[in-house]
Design goal:
five-stranded antiparallel beta sheet, disordered N terminus, 3 domains, GMP Synthetase, Chain A, domain 3, Non-ribosomal Peptide Synthetase Peptidyl Carrier Protein, Chain A, globular, 649 residues
Length: 649
């Protein structure tokens, strides 16, 4: 794993230019160990019913580090954390820092293709896996040198704490340069193959080091509504663990249920909250509310709107809200807006973090005047090492910096940006086919590539439509193979689900008999958009809703009782009528925001029948219709077990 690190960090108050004198940044592992020495008995981590002090976190990571070392983990090698979000996940990351190795978090519900890409791109030494979610034996057998697999069931935090206590003082591991990789984070790839972004230990340290002026210096209890496979969690996480704060993380069940997440915030009296904007919208609407201890809200990972800022200010007029921006390749976040104005047309992505410099350039790499749009380039200490085992892609996106020091690099973001009269950056979309869905970076080309691997699909074109207040929605136009019939949506959805992250699975599949072309002989996306049925008045939907006539089996027994009416409401909310009675709401285009819309419509027809929180448990048309029947005292159909929610962050 090789690459070129960024330059030295500089110090600057957020809102400055990022061009001040260099300042020292403390290595992450050294900062954590110093905090253990200062506050050994302070609460460090709370997750899934497990609470660990700084001393216990140190001991447990020492015990796990020794075990991973015995199974071959070394500097330059990777431990893959393929477990559900838990204390063990965090301990594995700390153990990798301790040994000088690299971590990669790939939760078991992510496509197995990402694990295969990891083993292809880097030297994966050990995999932490668990029970039913173990790595498929067929995948391991296909690897030239399969990694060791450790079962998480044998690695309880309490046992690791005891093992760490028995370790002799001092770490026996070799020192590694701070330019060594700390982690590899996988993102969507336009060719269908995921990309692994390698981030150095020094880049992680620089990202954390500049957050103090924004996050504050008093003791904090930080709650983050993100998964550990999403690199956006790392800034707050390591700011907390290197600063003596208390880090609270939701387990997978608490994360997908907004009411549970809000309850967690109240229970632990959190002071700092970090989430993506679409999730925070739902949190603001939770009737239980957030605690009066709250001091700061940070959002990032997708576009923050003036409406969200206004809703926050109305609910919490004295609590600041901060908007962070940054691709994975710029180490978590590279710019920050500390005082967004809800009265402006858009919320800026702000100004660079300390030491970072940003440039808005035209196609000839010339700076554009203020107010004009160009492509955003990022330079400085946060620019990642590159893509693992993909030198051509690295050379394409990580380019020489013509405006910086000799040998410096810029990351070409692909984002269209401008600088306003105050010097703040604004985001205006993409130069390519990349989109953000519920915080996940999605390449439309990857969706098309996966669909075209289906034997019944000749060609596919994916589009992302705004879809109103429920957030963006993916639509796939599908041309069947010659002489064949188009596969139905359920079959295509199942095909995608095993190969794409949940956010990348299209909500709507539109069969076409040809793909129109533009003058450049590329797919004419404007012409394809014209094929979408128009939405009903005020629905904000991508596709029009013609009752439930388009739902398979509508005339059959599956649609008895209240199911037909619930199905019609689903169609209005989702923007398509392609849902069967037992489909999971979150798997056919639903999100936490759309749950709120769904609840409002259901409650309008059957007041009090279902609470918002119940819609995260009863996620099918059949289950919701049954709850309505129970509320009305009617006898309904036996719906059997309810599948779990699949809302992804």
């Amino acid at each position: 794993m090789t690459g070129t690190g960024g330059g030295a960090a500089t110090t600057r108050h957020p809102g400055g230019t990022g061009k001040d004198a260099p300042a020292e940044v403390r290595p992450v592992w050294a900062a954590f160990r110093s905090q253990v020495a200062r506050t050994p008995e302070a609460a460090a981590l709370v997750i899934g019913g497990v609470s660990l002090t700084y001393r216990e976190l140190d001991h447990a990571s020492a015990g796990l580090a020794r075990l991973l070392w015995r199974h071959g983990l070394r500097p330059g090698r990777v431990v893959c954390v393929r477990t559900r979000q838990s204390a063990l996940s965090v301990l594995a990351m700390l153990a990798a820092l301790r040994t000088g190795a690299t971590w990669a978090v790939l939760e078991p519900d992510l496509p197995v293709g990402r694990f295969e890409a990891l083993c292809r791109d880097v030297d994966c030494a050990v995999v932490l896996s668990e029970g039913d979610d173990a790595v498929p034996a067929s995948v391991l057998a296909a690897l030239p040198v399969p990694p060791a697999v450790l079962d998480a069931a044998d690695l309880r935090p309490a046992r690791l704490v005891e093992a760490g206590r028995r370790e002799p003082p001092g770490d026996p591991y070799p020192a590694v340069p701070e330019q060594s990789p700390a982690y590899v984070a996988y993102t969507s790839g336009s060719t269908g193959a995921p990309k692994g972004v390698l981030v150095g230990r020094d880049q992680l340290a620089a990202s954390i080091g500049g957050r103090g002026p924004v996050y504050g210096t008093g003791h904090a209890v930080l709650l983050i509504a993100l998964r550990l496979s999403f690199d956006g969690i790392l800034g707050g996480m390591f700011w907390s663990l290197t600063g003596g704060h208390t880090l609270v993380l939701p387990d997978p069940e608490q994360l997908v249920r907004v009411a549970e997440f809000a309850r967690l915030a109240r229970e632990h009296r959190v002071t700092h909250l970090f989430n993506i904007p679409s999730y925070y919208r739902a949190v603001l609407q939770d009737p239980g509310g957030l605690p009066d201890t709250l001091r700061l809200v940070v959002v990032g990972g997708e576009v923050c709107t003036p409406g969200l800022v206004g809703a926050h200010r109305e609910r919490f007029p004295r609590i600041p809200i901060v908007n962070e921006y940054g691709p994975t390749e710029t180490t978590i976040a590279c710019t920050v807006e500390t005082d967004p104005d809800p009265e402006r047309d858009r919320v800026p992505i702000g100004r660079p973090w300390p030491g970072v410099h940003t440039l808005v350039l035209d196609e000839r790499l010339r700076e554009v005047p203020a107010g004009e749009r160009g492509e955003l380039y990022v330079g400085g200490p946060l620019v990642a090492l590159g893509y693992a085992n993909q030198p051509a892609r690295t050379a394409e996106r990580f380019v020489a910096d013509p405006y910086g020091r000799p040998g410096g690099r810029l990351y070409r973001t692909g984002d269209v940006a401008s600088v306003d009269e105050r010097g703040a950056l604004h985001y205006h979309g993409r130069t390519d086919d990349q989109v953000k869905i519920r915080g996940a970076r999605i390449e439309l080309g990857e969706i098309e590539s996966v669909l075209e691997r289906h034997p019944g699909v000749e060609q596919a074109v994916a589009l992302c439509e705004p879809a109103g207040p429920g957030g963006p929605q993916l639509v796939a136009f599908v041309l069947p193979t010659p002489g064949g019939s188009p596969p139905d949506a359920a079959e295509l959805r199942g095909h995608c689900r095993g190969r794409l992250v949940e956010q990348a699975v299209p909500a709507l599949f539109v069969p076409v008999d040809r793909i129109p072309l533009d003058r450049s002989t590329k797919a004419d996306r404007a012409a394809l958009r014209a094929l979408l049925p128009t939405a009903g008045p005020g629905s904000g939907a991508v596709a029009g809703v013609a009752g439930v006539a388009g739902i398979a089996g509508v005339a059959g027994g599956d649609w008895g009782g209240h199911r037909c009416a619930v199905g019609r409401i689903w169609a209005e909310v989702l923007g398509h009528s392609d849902s069967a009675p037992d489909d999971n709401f979150f798997a056919v285009g639903g999100s936490s925001i759309k749950v709120v819309d769904l609840h409002d419509r259901l409650d309008g027809q059957w007041p009090g029948a279902l609470r918002v929180g119940e819609l995260f448990d009863h996620v099918t048309i059949a289950a919701q219709a049954q709850r309505i029947a129970d509320h009305l005292g009617e006898r309904g159909q036996d719906d059997g077990p309810v599948p779990p929610a699949a809302y992804e962050l």
